[in-house]
Amino acid sequence: MLGLVGLSIPIVGILGLISVSAGMRNLLGETLGQVQGMLVLREDAPAPIFSHLRADLEEKIRRVPGVRLVAAEVWEASPPIEGTSLFRNLTKLENWTSKTRRIQSILDANAVLGQDLEAHLKSRTAVYAKSIKEGRFLTLDDRDQPRVVISRKTAAKHPKADGEPRRAGDSLKIGEIEFQIVGVYDTGSMLFDDILVMDIGIARKLLGLAPGQVSCFYVESERPDQMEEVARAIESAVPGVDALNMREFQANFGSVMTEINNGLMLVVGLALLVGVVGIVNTMLMSTMERFAEFGVLRTNGWSRKDVLKLITVESAFLGLAAGVLGCVITLVASAVANHFLTGGLHLAASPGQIATGLGLSVVMGTVGGLYPAWKASRLAPMEAIRAGTH
Predict the structure, then answer these.
(1) Distance (Å, rounded) from C-alpha 86 to C-alpha 232?
(2) 23-63: per-residue pLDDT in tens?
(3) Given CB 3.0 to 4.6 Å as the disulfide criterion, which of 61, 158, 211, 287 pairs with 376?
């Protein structure tokens, strides 16, 4: 039983990591699939929130052949909303009583997106304008005005005094400024649904940024199939920037996830080693208790190879049982987690992943039984009988 549980735990860990990684990659792919343009950021900046560019670069980008639209954006972490900040969420006692709540508090951090409305309203691929569920999107009349578009998630996270979610027409205090909510959107992705969308002028005032400061530029090409060519042309014409389409963002994210997975797999590998040791211990104790049985079998014509094969097959079946247990636990845990997860993240163990888990458990079980099998097969028949009767 010890070996069974010991080997099933790392199998759960491996399948769980693969499932979470696949879920995050699928979520990112579906999310970025909504964005048809590219982002021009400071060179080597991992995301817009870490990028700072000069506003005068817009004209240089606009002159690149194939560019249809250039729209400046400001991205920053949001000031406290209704007096509630990420730090305050993390320091709330109730959020530290549950690991899930601590993680959710981090995932719920809002960001401010300030858009050059005159340019953005000409976009053919605007994500937030297409996702409005209540009210309206920003117009030119909202320039430099304290008006904001928020997500349904944010509206529910910062309810009114009566506990009801905020709606279009309600007010929302962000930092020290009272904003009017003009629209509520829902993209269906946790990666997009924590963004506060407003005019770039009021965003600079809210965030204390200098006039003309931008984080990045949203760029559309005249033809979608020219995206990569236009990106290379922008990087050539404007030194010190990266022009990234959504596939490149996805590839970069995939690289980061791979590095994280590799590190976690080392930890799981140690757990797997402990599981193998448990199998060795279980099979060794089992074979010691059955020495007399093996001695009788040897006297009845069984060869050392037959004994070796018997114990190895038994350990392989023990590994298979551990694998089945681990897969069942993973499937149940994924189903329970999916019941609580929101924002488009879905965990699922594919048939290929299940087969991998079962195969790995059988191999580890077989490896764990080799030494006990070898030890039992080396005993002479009468020696085995005497050892088993003591």
Answers:
(1) 38
(2) 666 655 555 555 567 889 999 887 888 899 999 999 999 99
(3) 287
Residue 172: its H or E element: strand 171-174
Q: What is residue 377's predicted lDDT score, i.e. its pLDDT?
A: 74
The DSSP secondary-structure symbol of 49 reads G
What's the pTM value of the predicted model, to 2 decimals?
Answer: 0.62
Contacts of 143 (CB under 8 A, 6+ apart): 117, 118, 199, 201
What pLDDT, on a 0 to 100 scale, did the predictor assign at position 337? 76
Query: How, if at all, do strands 195-199 and 111-115 pair?
Result: parallel
Best CA proximity match to 19, nearest among 341, 359, 271: 341
What tokens appear for 176 in the block?
Answer: 């020290």
Give the pLDDT of residue 212.
83
The Cα–Cα gap between 236 and 229 comes to: 11
**Dihedral, CA of residue 48, residue 49, residue 55 and residue 57, to nearest 10:** -30
Q: What value does the CA radius of gyration of the chain take, rounded to a whole number of Å?
A: 30
Give me the sign of the Cα torsion angle 356, 359, 361, 363. negative
CB atoms under 10 Å from CB of 134, counted, come to 17
Element (H, E) at 101: helix 99-107
What is the DSSP secondary-structure string of 280-337?
HHHHHHHHHHTHHHHHHHHHTT--HHHHHHHHHHHHHHHHHHHHHHHHHHHHHHHHHH
d(CA 303, CA 284): 19
Distance CA 117, CA 202 (A): 11
**Is the sign of the CA dihedral 329, 332, 333, 334 positive or negative?**
positive
Contact residues for 110 (Cβ-Cβ < 8 A; gap 6+): 77, 78, 81, 154, 194, 195, 196
19 vs 160: CA distance, rounded Å:
37
Token output for 2:
């010890």
Task: Map residue 135 onto helix, strand or coil.
Answer: strand
Listed as ranges, residues in the chain with pLDDT below 50 are 86-107
CB-count exposure of residue 293 (10 Å: 0-12, 13-18, 19+) = middle
